[in-house]
Design goal:
Layout lengths: L4 E10 L2 E2 L1 H6 L26 H14 L9 E7 L4 H12 L8 H4 L4 H10 L5 E4 L5 H14 L5 E8 L4 H10 L21 E9 L7 E10 L11 H11 L9 E3 L6 H15 L5 E2 L2 H4 L6 H13 L3 E5 L5 E5 L5 E7 L3 E9 L1
Parallel strand pairs: 3-4, 3-5, 8-9, 8-12
Antiparallel strand pairs: 1-2, 1-6, 1-7, 5-6, 7-13, 10-11, 12-13
């Protein structure tokens, strides 16, 4: 028998600050970009070789758990991972270029799975530890995969989410050449400014219903792939959203809000809006926070899920309309669909409902 899965904790680190409350409070702020980075001085120290991405993931996981102890063999970790410890990689390359020695620990620090391993080590989790690398959809996929571990009974607690700290000069230069970065250094979802490159991490605690006080319910999920969509979302996203609603036994009219991918690029936002209109007709309220956090790549879906959970606990929701206008509005919390689209064609959707 499959077990209902609930969210019992949330932790977040972003350009808005340390802690989940800063995420919702700053959801409508406009990032001063085109690159917004984490401040390493605010993150826990994990040893001299640990990269910023691992330190951010551990900070988010510690907040999400809130000091709770776990049963090691029944606890898992599933985190979205993108470029791994890119700062550690670039540090090692610079050291090699000047003839200095490179620490053997650096080879672990810049692995894509370094953040997931750091979290598992920090909380003493001995169950499945997985890094999901589906580009900008990785955080959403990680939540779905972690929920499956809990629903199936394989784990009793899973830390899920994503982490990315890759706003290095080299990565920013590559995105600038691609034409994706905002020329003005500011990004407003659905306004066509271009994206701001960000860094961050978010972790949710998933458990079976009844194990601890619930903040939200993981109601459904779906994933897909579009081989033709190397950079931008595609209309195939509509089928993935429908799949998530079907998994949650919901109709489009049951949805209270959509947490959109909304990177701020002209083509990407237009394709996403077209897909959402195909599913919903008249759009429900749209939540779009990448204008404030920057696009955090593998962490983006996790931060979006964290915003959705926090909004479900609030009488107001931060909204962005299809023209880019922003504001908060009162709402009656209901099912939220969180949508992600990753470079390379990865598509994912998650449904979070009130507990």
């Amino acid at each position: 028998m499959r077990r209902p899965v609930v969210v019992t904790g949330v932790g977040a680190v972003s350009a808005l600050g340390i802690g989940a409350p800063t995420l919702l409070a700053g959801a409508l702020a406009v990032a001063d970009g085109p690159v917004v980075r984490l401040d390493p001085a605010l993150l826990p120290r994990l040893g001299s070789s640990a990269d910023v991405v691992s330190r951010a993931a551990v900070a988010a996981a510690r907040e999400a758990l809130g000091g709770r102890r776990v049963v090691p063999e029944r606890t898992g970790v599933v985190l979205g991972a993108g470029l791994g410890g890119l700062y550690a990689w670039e540090r090692a390359v610079r050291a090699q270029d000047r003839g200095a020695s490179v620490s053997p620990a650096d080879s672990v620090a810049f692995m894509p799975g370094a953040a997931a391993a750091a979290v598992a080590r920090d909380v003493a989790a001995l169950g499945p530890c997985r890094a999901v690398s589906t580009a900008c959809a990785a955080g959403t996929d990680a939540v779905a995969l972690g929920a499956e571990l809990v629903a199936s009974g394989r784990c009793d607690l899973v830390l899920v989410g994503g982490a990315e700290a890759a706003a290095t000069d080299a990565n920013a230069a590559a995105l600038r050449r691609l034409g994706a970065l905002s020329p003005s250094g500011r990004a407003r979802p659905f306004a066509g400014d271009g994206l701001v490159l960000g860094e961050g991490a978010a972790v949710l605690v998933l458990e079976p219903e009844g194990a601890a006080p619930a903040l939200a319910r993981v109601a459904g999920s779906a994933a897909g792939f579009d081989p033709a969509a190397l950079v931008e979302p595609s209309r195939r996203l509509a089928g993935v959203v429908r799949g998530a609603l079907e998994d949650a036994s919901l109709a489009p009219g049951d949805v209270a809000a959509v947490d959109a991918h909304a990177t701020g690029t002209v083509a990407g936002d237009a394709a996403e809006l077209a897909a959402l209109q195909e599913v919903f007709g008249t759009l429900p309220p749209l939540v779009a926070t990448k204008g404030s956090t920057g696009h955090t790549m593998a962490a983006a879906g996790a931060l979006d899920a964290a915003v959705a959970v926090l909004a479900l606990l609030s009488p107001e929701i931060p909204c962005t309309d299809a023209a880019g206008a922003q504001g908060t509005r009162p709402w009656t919390p209901g099912p939220v669909v969180s949508v992600s689209a990753g470079f390379g064609g990865y598509l994912a959707a998650l449904v979070l409902s009130p507990a």
